[in-house]
Amino acid sequence: MKMWLCAAMSELPANLDLNLLRPLEALLETSSVTKAAARLSLTQAATSNALQRLRATLGDPLLVRAGNAMQLTPRAEALRGLVRDAVEALARLMHPGSFDPAAAQGCIAIATSDHVDLLLLGQLERTLRRLAPDLSLHVEAFGPESFSRLEHGRLSLVIAPRHRMPPTLKGTALFEDRLVLVGRGKQPGLRGRLTVERLAQLPFLMVSPLGGVRGAIDEALEKRGLQRRVVRSVPQFTVASLILKRADLVALLPETFARSSACRGLRVMQLPLELPPISMHAAWSPRYDADLRHQWLRGLLRPTVDAVLRALGMAR
User: Fold this and answer.
1) Is the dihedral of CA 256, 258, 263, 268 positive or negative?
2) Does the pTM exceed 0.90?
3) How far is it, in rounded angstroms, from Cα 223 to Cα 225?
4) Which conformational region is residue 187 in: left (phi greater than 0), alpha (psi within -120 to 50 degrees), or beta?
5) How far is CA 268 from the centre of its chain?
6) Domains in the chain and their CATH numbers?
């Protein structure tokens, strides 16, 4: 398309009104003002006016009378194919068509936590293999550089809590999660009724993907004059689930993760105090908002989330 457009445009003067391309194409194809007017759904007067403007712009009569008919000049004959290609190329430029996932190639790169990777991206990968077998999926850990990488086109999506998203990005809500308490069911600290005071005394394993040492629960406990006891921290939810299965520790984990196979055999308890929900969002660069492949990818997210939540018994 670029070669056609450049070749065609190089033959046309820089001051040519692009609105005259369609009349020019019709006149060159029909060699008739009457037929060109009918093709364009214009009056003969309007088409004749367009021809006069084209003659002035191109410095050539384009159509000349030969007996009872009109004939193209040599210059007009030379322009026929070029103008046709230019019109078709401009149409494709303004209307890029559709995206065919079956023919797509390349890599989709997503930054997120291992929790979301385990929860959603396995299902997304299976969908990609079925619909777009030549598209690969690359997943990397969500970190401080993720949004910069997203804005520079090195990532397709970032999936993370909404409150972490910069306002400069486009985004959509995926699902709401909440924190639950997870630990080995037989450990002494989890026997009996769980109160806020007992909660603060439990030995906590903290999951901190970005390295922080405080969370919403710490603020909630401090308002009650209490402080959580964190004895260990790890950066990944999957690592935390393995530790919880062999140590008398507890952790606050997203309920979607706590209900997954990674936490099978562990006890899941509701908290005795209310914490704000976690709104998980997908974010992307505004550069790709209208990109057909990216729109197709984003269209896969909602059915993927819905299928996973149904499987967990958490359908909205």
Assistant:
1) negative
2) no
3) 6
4) beta
5) 33
6) 2-94 (1.10.10.10), 101-171+281-311 (3.40.190.10), 179-276 (3.40.190.10)
Q: Distance between CA 294 and CA 300 in Å, rounded?
A: 10
Instruction: Answer whether 178's CB lies under 8 Å from 276's CB.
Output: no
The whole-number pLDDT of residue 6 equals 54
Pairing state of beta strands 170-177 and 203-207?
A: unpaired
pLDDT band at 176 (very low <50, low <70, confident <90, very high): very high
CA dihedral 226, 231, 233, 236 (to 10 degrees): -100
Q: Sign (positive/negative) of CA torsion 249, 254, 258, 261?
A: negative
CB 36 within 8 A of CB 87: no
Question: What separation in angstroms does the CA of 258 have from each of 41, 200, 206, 218, 252?
Answer: 65, 20, 14, 20, 9
State pLDDT tens for residues 186-196: 888 888 889 99
Dihedral sign for Cα atoms in the order 101, 104, 110, 116: positive
pLDDT by residue (tens digit) across 180-227? 999 998 888 888 889 999 999 999 999 998 887 788 999 999 999 999
